[in-house]
Records
---
Amino acid sequence: MRLSELFRLVWLNLSQNKFKVIMTSIGIVVGSATIMMVIAIGTGGKEEVAKQFKNLNAGAIDISYESESTSFSGGMGGMSGMSGGMPGGDFGGSSTRSFGGGFGGFPGMGGMGSSDRMNQENIVLSTEDMDDLQVFVPGINDATISYSTTSSVEGGELEDSATYTIAGVLSNYMEMSNMDLSIGEFLTDENDESKEKVCVLGSSVAKEIFGSAYDAYDGVVYIDARPYVVAGVLEEMGSVASGISPDTAIFIPYNTGIKYLTGSDVSPTITLVAEDVNNIDTVITNVETVLADSYPNAEFTISDAGTKMEAASASNDTLTMLLIAMAIIVFIVGGIGIMNVLFVSVKERTNEIGILKAIGCSQKDILLEFLLEASCTSMIGAILGVLLALGITPIVESFDMRVTLSVADAVISLLFGVITGTVFGFYPAYKASILIPVVALNQE
């Protein structure tokens, strides 16, 4: 039998049983939609992880100390001290509470004498500690120190004062954090040495206070009632690790903040960048040794960005694998449904199969006919599944889940559907093809 005649038979059988075809393919519809959404959500999750950590250096190591007299410490692993950056945020404390950071949080305070360094009840990491680590720990590419606090801010288009996160940083903070400027320039060493009242605004802060980055540049904001000139505005970063963003922070020179905002009530974080990301563990061990010499019996919090990235990626991969497992189960159920329907169809059409064989159709022709029916049924289900996935995408995105659809996802989903129908339809098709013509014709 010619292929065109086979397709005609398949078309006739499917068109005469439209409802049965649709009901048979429901499992494939769900499976196809699921596999497409799994791939899209997995891709979106990876993009979200990359976006969250785009301001991190994989070799970054954060070092902080937290005692009962200090608040929070964070690091370049996620600006953990900036959760209250938006106006009106709940900071759970006074406007001068400080907490550390780093590549995404903020590091520390300089100029502490040796007697202060040895005071175990009031350990404050300093620029001196940062310098010691750079000198005595091999394999360090760069280092910075920073801290963050909160303070009332006025100026621009603000009708009332608002509370923002204020970050005290050094001049190399922007480069180490992989941030970019929209306009102006970042803080300089001269600004820090002279304790100048200048600042750099995050993109969201600039828009909230001045309306735009252009209007914010060279403007004046009042932080704790003191005027600060806006030296620059950062490019929009979006959300980063821990849901915190430099978009909502105001950056000022490290020593300026010590002098005018925090005084000695600060818990900074030192951030180091290892030359070799594969040598992080060794660098951390050496850091612990150097700190133990300066602060015997003190316990510091040391974390690296690479571990945080891996943990976030592993969490996303686990979710993706669970969704894939669910999609496979749905496909199997759908395939079994197709198999059952084809078995019933073979039983119902035994006489038809006998006639086809009697007029010269070969075993191969019968096998191909039933296989094509199974494949076409699953193809219809797969197409409906892709359309279903496109339809529910806005609903999934409404739950703050990133979904990245692509043509490749749709093609993969269609292939899964067709392959499932073909595989599960093979055995019923084979059973139909081996029927003996005489027996089939006499079957009631």
---
Amino acid sequence: MEENLITEKIIGCAIEVHRSLGPGLLESAYEECLYYELCNKGLNVERQKPVPVIYKDIKLDYGYRIDLLVENRIVIELKVVDAFNPVHEAQILTYMKFAKKSTGLLINFNVSLLKNGIKRYKL
């Protein structure tokens, strides 16, 4: 399946979750519901996927985790914050780099309109 089609499905599912729950919940609640919606759409989804840190060819299992990895291609990092800040962008870009994935979605559920809380990244 093409990456654009996958990201469209992901965004549609995220909008459905946000429409049903609204802002104000914990990140873990949105993760659980988004996982459910994505699986319902027939997508392959991994939750809390470990991401090792690679330093000078040494693999360090440091405890970083991707919130959701869809179709082994799209990294999804979920947030419940007032606004994105540079550390959120750095986080998703780092996860994408270490996981060797070229596409990522940063989704903030703490907004009144979800389209204002979605950023797409390409490496």
---
Amino acid sequence: MLARVLSSSLIGIDPYLVEVEVNVEGHAFHYNTVGLPELAVRESKERVISAIKNSGFIFPPKAYTINLAPADIKKEGSAFDLPIAIGILAALGAIVHEQLEDYALLGELSLDGSLRPIKGALPSAVGVHEHQLKGLILPAQNAREAAVTGDVDVIPVASLLDAILFLNGEKHIEPLEVDAELLFSKSQNYPVDIGDVRGQAHVKRALEVAAAGGHNVLMIGPPGSGKTMLAKRFPTILPQMTLEEALETTKIHSIAGMVRTEGLVATRPFRSPHHTISDAALVGGGRIPRPGEVSLAHHGVLFLDELPEFQKNVLEVMRQPLENSEVTISRASMSLTYPANFILLSAMNPCPCGYSSDPRHECSCSNMSIQKYMAKISGPLLDRIDLHIEVPAIPFEELSAKQDGESSAVVRQRVQSARNIQIERFQNEPEIHSNADMPPKMIRNICHIDSISADLLKTAITNLGLSARAYDRILKVSRTIADLAGSRHILAEHLSEAIQYRSLDRQLWMV
């Protein structure tokens, strides 16, 4: 007897429908899965058989053929356990076939028949809606995540037996409903605040400029100057995520199996990988490509502490996502593109020992060792970082001050006002969301400067030997500073401040 069950899988972040066809015949035991199943799918045989038996059903010795269509796309993961088990029982006559056409099923089975959570519940729910199915049956642990779409009936089940009873109409399970707007508003809280940081007013100002324009940042300072503390609070001054951004970010985290119980990523992601990370882990990879840290930081912040300690080839693979806001991973069998629109926030010491810019400590590094240390960051990568900020050691007077600085909410309000100006400016450019995204041609049209500012920029370019890309970066940062000031035109003071944010281009850092 033949049965057909619907399921879902993903290519990158894009869902597609999978038809699980089960044919049962004969009297000699045989079990075969076709349709390009990966190892986890092939191993489902043992889980499915044990789960069926431990759920109180007979598993007769027959020939079982399971086909996962379309057959030319590789199927991976354990989420096909539940639809395969349901298909087998439907082919054996233990499940009514009528409801199988209305629902897609996902879930990993334990040997006792209970269900374990899966990856990719949210994008799968989106795919079920696109194919106009009635609902999605999946593990209860993934139900809130899938229900935030609000477009399909999400049926949470705890076991194989629950799914069988529901499909046979013997047990009523109410579809889980989640108010995505309410959940989104309740989850937009950060545990830290930039007001916690003592001193470093000029660094906070630079981070405000970076947040207002979506610019990449490099902080240079001795150990203990507060670089990591500032970095962790940087997401709190970025504009609040929109619901659309939250859903897109949650899709990526869902594929990686990193969605928390709330079911929605409502705050800006902050990813801080260790400097021993590989290039595949940073940008994504694997036999079947998975999103890397640059994609997990989508709509948020990627923080690279101790930047020169990262392998050079690891840093260089970031050049494409920094320019294109996406990363393409190619393999022999497929090529996948993941979104990667993030702000790069990085930190480093001024020298190997860390104390060349600290008057309270003696630097033990030679000029040659400092040159080698700085050379670990290539020029092309450095050019893609808009702001280079010096973070000096904090004086005792500032460290012991009792008065808190401005809160994140106050700074974020100014940042949002500047972003609103940019939203209006780029309303006819759907691919551009902030000043940092402007291509060179648009920079010439938007970032006009007067003769005084032009002379100032010419002097800076000549004396510092800045590249053409650095020239563009200065103009973009100047435009952001003008937006924060509410100025329609870029003035000399805005340009001067932007030039100050190119520390590594100035001679004091070029040993």
---
Amino acid sequence: MIEFGWGGASETGPVRRKNQDRLMISDPMFVVADGMGGHQAGEVAALMAIETLALETRPKSVEELVEMVEAANTAIVERGESDVTMRGMGTTICVLAGLDIDDQSMLGAANVGDSRLYLSSDDGLVQITEDHSLVETLVRDGRLTRKEAAVHPQRNVVTRALGIDPKVLVDSWLLTAIVGDRYLICSDGLFNELSANEIHTILTEIGDPDAAAHRLVDEACAAGGHDNVTVVVVDIVGLEHSADPVEDRVAEFRPALPRVEKPAPTVVSERSLASRPLFTWRLGLFVASVVTVMAVLMVSVVLYARSGFFVGVDGTEVVIFKGRPDGVLWFDPTFEESVQVSVVDLAPSDLEEVTDGVQFDSLDEAKQYGFELFVRAENLQP
């Protein structure tokens, strides 16, 4: 048996109208679910996932933990099929649970979607789970860098979720439990607002797990709170059967899909510049000219980046953004309002359009297009 310490917190945030996140703390199981689906009741999907796992909170193995997540998926899919108002709802799920395997205290983890499990250690914040998202796929394919992915306008588009398909792909892990370790489970509303260093600093400086959870949520909301924020902090306080200390806590990773390893990218080193005078009057004139040009360009970029609106995708929901679909430099598009349409209800041609982002000069034009999407989606319903 493992003795846990824990704390949790969840907030709607200053931007969203309702909280579609749910959390469960039921020793020895800890869960975060981030509901998706807008008017298709994402919060219902998240709650159903939590309630299904709550029926059996003591899995005996990683395999049993995965089966529990699969059962939650089945329940959500069946609810959507039987109730047209719930069709298309979905949720992410991230679970950490204590296990007793062969007289050894271990941890099991399971994940679907882009909610995350972290280990906070002296070396920093280690992400255990892998996001099932569009940008994570592009990063693994070498088409985006981590830095580009962090600000990509489609970073909230998930590629896996409970409730979308009868067959769900669940990644799972067997972890070695070590006394003193601290784990963090969270929705994307946390790590999209706070950096890994900011999260790790709070987890390191605040000893009480409940106080740490509430501080993380408060800081994420203060940093912008563009999405719901949910956090569960779990401490390993004691072990009935102590494990030998290991540097890598991941004893086994069981991806739902086979992994294809790619060669690491080649690093091209830069040649050092030959020694030369650091500053001349010509250089001073050049720098002054560049600064002036850059100032003019920056004003132009800001005006361009914040002009116009577009209809795009946020998770599984169609929404209106202010700005440009791909952003401009560090000026990301911002959420304006929901269209109240789920991507699963769209015709293929409409889905292709909104995935790329449909641009308009005014908010009224974007609203009119959104209304037309809503009408076409409603007409497609059986």
